[in-house]
Structures are given as structure tokens and as C-alpha cells.
Amino acid sequence: MNTPVYQTVIVGGGFTGLFTALHLAHEHYPRSVILIDQNERFCFKPLLYEYFDGEMDSVQVVPRFSELLRGSGVIFVQDTVQSIDLHQKEVKLVSGSSYNYSNLVLALGSVSGFHRVTGAKENAFGFWTQADAIALDKHLRDCLQKAIQTEDIEQRRQLLTVVIVGGGASGVEMAATLADFLPHWYDALGGNAAEIRIIILNHGQKILDGDINDPLRPIAEKELQKRAIRVEIITAAEATAVHPNAVEYQSNNETKILPTYTTIWNAGTSIHPLIQELPIPPEHRDHHHRPLVTPTLQLLDFPEVFAGGDCAAIEDISLPPTAQVAYQQGANIAHNLKAQALGEDLKPAQVNIRGTLLKLGLNDAAANLFNIFEVVGEPAHLIRQATYLTLLPTPIHDFQATTEWLDEEIFHHHLDSDRIGKKVVQAVELVGAGVVGVLVARKLLQMLGNEAKKD
Question: Which residue, 60, 96, 289, 334, is the most exposed by fewest CB within 10 angstroms?
């Protein structure tokens, strides 16, 4: 007779997985918790642009799991998952190890979707991890160095052209970031920054179309033209092939070519292969093939398995694939895991969409706060930085203070200006009583004052 295994295995250390683990530790979950991820470091993806352009360092944006989980009691295993057996309740790893579970959390996120475009996977740069950021940084610097040395005008033009495939939020943020700092790099080498081209190749008629950031499109389009290098936007253009030195695309039934040595792929995502392979029937998946989960975030056929973030879909509810959704679902999963362990009733997940934050270059951003008002420029940049810095997973003793402040005092009570006014001052202590904290407090209070005058 097999001895029952009472442990929870979390597969994937993104927002959903890591925040599930941290919340379980904070709530003194009565079972052992194992977090498995193939990477040594957690990647705070919304701030990967800040790491890429040097605004923030690795400690802030890509901290080690071992540091984040120190003292939490959560066991971190750095390994790649080979297979998941939902019937046998077993997770097998590439190393040969395996873990049985009483509960499983699927938090694998999604992967780049190359949509069968020839050469895209082989020749385009992704932007998901610290390794991606480092590789792209090195490549761009090499291109600029070669451009300053060559006398071949056509080759220099190719070296100085960057094509970003995809005009969603990631594509827009990448374009704005590159358009601001690439000219500085090239100027420092003695080059003519006016020769640099940044191009967004967008399949649809409009950038940010269908994205949660759609309301910010007019602002984004305007800001992209104000960058140090004006961003070119080619719409109704479908990428058909990516070569080492060019991108082919279809537009108006005509094949066109963009000569470039740098193609960055931001054209959507696909379901994680491990999720695709799970024994879940088509009728229990959505149109993206993601498994459907109950309002309590449990698989329909396997109630001991919870899933959140990009790799699952709640029945009859559409949620954007954003960090704010993923980390809130992590808290919900942790609550229900503890309730299940204690024989208590589970609660439907509650996710509050609190607005959107879009990076638009160095020290620049746009924010749509609760669909009530928009903020642009440096104030939006400060709000974005402060919000994300507050959300950074911290050692367990700081975790409660940061998440509770963000959740209860800023977001849930955002319509009560008197309450916010007091809490913004407290926010300085939590965000940090340095320049960022003080400036954010000042800008938010000024913003609230302006809103009050309108009333």
C-alpha cells in the first residue's frame, strides 16, 4: 500500500508560481512546497526593459530564486520539467528526478509564438529572459561598432536598421526604448544617429489593437514620433520569413523585403508544450488550447491541480495575460490550497484589473489608471516604477507589507482621495524614502489635486 504524499509542487517560477509560493509561506501552509523552474533567477518581465537599457540592475529585475525564498521554507529545484502525469500525480525532470504531489500548481506561462514563419525562431531575437536581454545588448553593440567601421553604405544601413515584428505592448515598449538609447550609443562611437532606423512591422491596421493597452494607442503613437529617433510603423504587414540579413513580409498581396541584421520577435505567444501535452480533452480547453479552470482555479477533471497565469483560462471569463493578473491569481491559489488542506471551503478567484502601464522610452511612460484618467510622461514613468518596485518579490519579512499596501491602500481605495492623500505619504516609506519615493508621492498628490479641481 502506497503511503500518501502530502506536498505541493509548483511548476514554473513566473509571477503565478513565485507568488503562490510566497503566499503559502506567509500563510504558514501546513504542507511542504517545492518550486521547480529551469532558471536560476526569477525574471520580473515588466522591468526587463529597465535592465536592458541600464536603468535598473540585476538585483532588482532578475533576483535569484534562492535569495527570494530564503527563510520561507519553500524548496527550490532548478531543473527542466520533462513530463507531467496527472493520473499518477507525478512530475518528472530532465535530470532523472521525479516528484509526487498531493497538489500541483501549473504556472508555466506561455512561449513565443512564431506562427510557422520561416526562420523566425532561428534568426529573430526574443525578449523574455535575462539571457535574451544580454544577447540582444551584445548584438546591437556589435552592429553599431561594425557600422562605424564600414564604408559600404548599404551594409551600414542594414547594420543600423532594427525591425520589431509585432505592434502589441511589448513591441511598442521595445521600439520606444531602442529609439531613445541607441542614438546615444552610436553618438558615443562618433556615428551619425540620424542613420538609425527603428521599424515596427505590425500585422494589423493599428498598433495595440485588441490589447489591454488599446486606450493608450493615441498617446503611444504620438510618443513614438517624439523619440530621439522617430519610430516607423508599417501596418497591415504580415511577416513571412526572417533571414539573418532581412525580413520578408506581405503587404497588399505583394512580397516586400526589409534589409536588417536585427529582427526582434514580439508577435504573440503560444501555449507551453507541457500544457499542450496534458491529457485534457478539447472540450475542456479554450480556443488557444489552454486548459479551462473553475472559478477557484482548479482543472475541471483534476481538482487537486490548480493553474493560473498565461497557461490557463477561467470558464466564461476573459483576462489579459499580464503580471497583475498572474500575481493576484498566485494569491488566490495559495488561499485555496490552504483551505483545501484544512478542509475549508474554497473561494472563487478575485482579480481586479487596476489599469495599465506602458513604457515609452527612457524616463517616459503612459498610464491608464482604473479607466478613470490617463497620465503621460515623467509622472507616468514614476508611477510605473513605483508600482513595479513595490511588486518586486522581496524576502518573506517584507512581503506582507508591500503587497498589502498596494492591494488595499492604493488600489481598493483609489476613489477616496482623502484616504489616498494620507497613504501616498506612507507610500514613501514603503517604496523607499529616496528620490523615487518622494517624487512619486509628490506627483500623485498633485494629480489628485488636479482631479479635485475638476470636480
Answer: 96
Give the C-alpha separation, 439 to 380, whole Å. Answer: 11
Enter the C-alpha cell of residue 183. Answer: 542614438
What confidence category does residue 450 fall into, taking pLDDT thresholds of 50, 70 and 90? low
CATH architecture of the domain with residue range 7-111+270-341:
3-Layer(bba) Sandwich (3.50)
- For 243-302, write each residue's pLDDT tens digit: 999 999 999 999 999 999 999 999 988 999 999 999 999 999 999 999 999 999 999 999
In which order are the strands placed within the sheet that holds 355-359?
355-359, 365-369, 373-376
Angle at 159 between CA 153 and CA 163, to 5 degrees: 125
Instruction: Record the cell numbers describing residue 234, joined without a space.
Output: 508599417
> How far is C-alpha 21 from the chain's CA centre?
18
* Closest residue by Cα to residue 443 from 359, 363, 325, 353: 363
Looking at the DSSP bridge assignments, the partners of residue 270 are 111
**Quick one: how far is CA 438 from the chain centroid?**
26
The domain defined by 120-267 folds into FAD/NAD(P)-binding domain (3.50.50)
Q: Are strands 231-234 and 197-201 parallel, antiparallel or unpaired?
A: parallel
Domain range summary for the chain, segments of one domain joined by +: 7-111+270-341, 120-267, 355-454
Angle at 398 between CA 39 and CA 36, to 5 degrees: 20
Residue 246: how many CB atoms within 10 A of its CB?
Answer: 18
Task: Give the residue from 13, 7, 28, 104 showing the smallest Cα distance to 66.
Answer: 13
Can you tell me the mean pLDDT for 136-164?
97
Contact 111, 155 (CB under 8 A): no
Give the whole-angstrom CA distance, residue 378 versus residue 97.
Answer: 49
Q: Where does residue 59 fall: left (phi above 0), alpha (psi -120 to 50 degrees), or beta otherwise?
A: alpha
The reported pLDDT for the residue numbered 354 is 77
Neighbouring-strand partners of residue 257: 248
Write out pLDDT tens, residues 189-213.
999 999 999 999 999 999 999 888 8
For residues 40 and 68, give the distance between their C-alpha atoms in angstroms, rounded to a whole number.
Answer: 11
- The residues, ordered by sequence, that sit 6+ positions from 302 with a Cβ below 8 Å of its Cβ are 86
Name the phi and psi angles at 304, rounded to 5: -80, -5
* Mean confidence (pLDDT) of the chain: 86
Phi and psi angles of residue 309, each rounded to the nearest 5 degrees, phi first = 75, -150
How many Å apart are CA 168 and CA 175, to the nearest integer?
A: 11
| Residue type, position 186, single letter | Y
pLDDT-derived band at 3, boundaries 50, 70, 90: low
